[in-house]
Amino acid sequence: MDAFFFIPVAIMLALVPGPNNFCALNNGIRRGVGVALLATFGRVTAFAIFLTISAVGLGAMLLASETAFTAVKWVGAVYLFYLGYRAWRSREFHGLELADGVEKAGVVAPAQKTVRALVMQEFLLGITNPKAIMLFAAIFPQFIDAARPAPHQFLVLGSIYLCAEFVSSAVYSLCGKQIRRFIRTSRGVARLNKATGGFFIGAGALLLAARQ
User: Fold this and answer.
1) Max CA separation in the chain (angstroms)
2) For residues 76 and 132, what is the distance between their CA atoms, to the nearest angstrom?
3) What are the respective helix, strand and coil percentages of the chain, to the nearest 5?
4) Helix 19-30 crosses helix 115-127 at what angle (to 10 degrees)?
5) How far apart are alpha carbons 95 and 30 in whole angstroms?
6) Nearest CA to 143 among 118, 126, 161, 169?
7) Phi, psi for residue 107 in degrees, rounded to 5
8) FRET label pair with 11: which of 5, 140, 154, 199, CA 20 to 30 Å apart?
């Protein structure tokens, strides 16, 4: 095992665009980097579960089971469609300061989601994504030294990857913080919500198209 060479690989994999990273971007726009990083504990928990599954050899079994793979895929897709529909229909702006006022165009400012709710959203996006199992089952074995105990290597590599997820979340939420500066009108809020909804719906469609 060469953990040093795995670090850049882990960061590159973590930075790949996907539902969780877009969620961090969205949280960065609406709530800031700090809250987005706290919400990342949700996805990290989900990925830690997948890492454990892969470490004990169940990952390959799940990948081999078409029924299990399809079930997780459909649950994940339905959840993405649900998030997409809610975002598309939403007129909420969650903390964005609008230059044209809150009441214009029917934009409303409801109570913000709690950090706990954002953590749960990240967790559900992660745990219902079967591609995560494919990633851990396909990539991690390439860095495992068969001559050494596998559990310790999985622990080290898994810890590196989970830290890389925080790096990725920081990058995306920082980008979101910069985008926030350009959203100053109710029309901008509407476009943001529709873009958010469109992304989640598109991600759900792509997930349904995924194969083992």
Assistant:
1) 66
2) 12
3) 75, 0, 20
4) 160
5) 6
6) 161
7) -70, 135
8) 199
Q: Which of 192, 128, 132 is nearest to 165 (CA)?
A: 132
Residue type at 11? Answer: I
In DSSP notation, 132-187 reads HHHHHHHHGGGG--TTS-HHHHHHHHHHHHHHHHHHHHHHHHHHHHHHHTT--SHH
Q: Is 88 left (phi over 0), alpha (psi -120 to 50) or beta?
A: alpha
User: What is the pLDDT averaged over residues 164-191?
Assistant: 87
Instruction: Say which residues have a Cβ less than 8 Å from residue 70's Cβ, sequence separation at least 6.
Output: none
Helix (DSSP H) and strand (DSSP E) numbers for the chain: 9, 0
Written as six digits, the tokens of 79 are 């959840």
Q: Write out the two tokens for 153.
A: 């290597």
**Does the global pTM surpass 0.85?**
no
What pLDDT digit, counting tens, does each position of 78-123 carry? 888 888 888 787 766 555 555 545 544 444 455 567 899 999 999 9
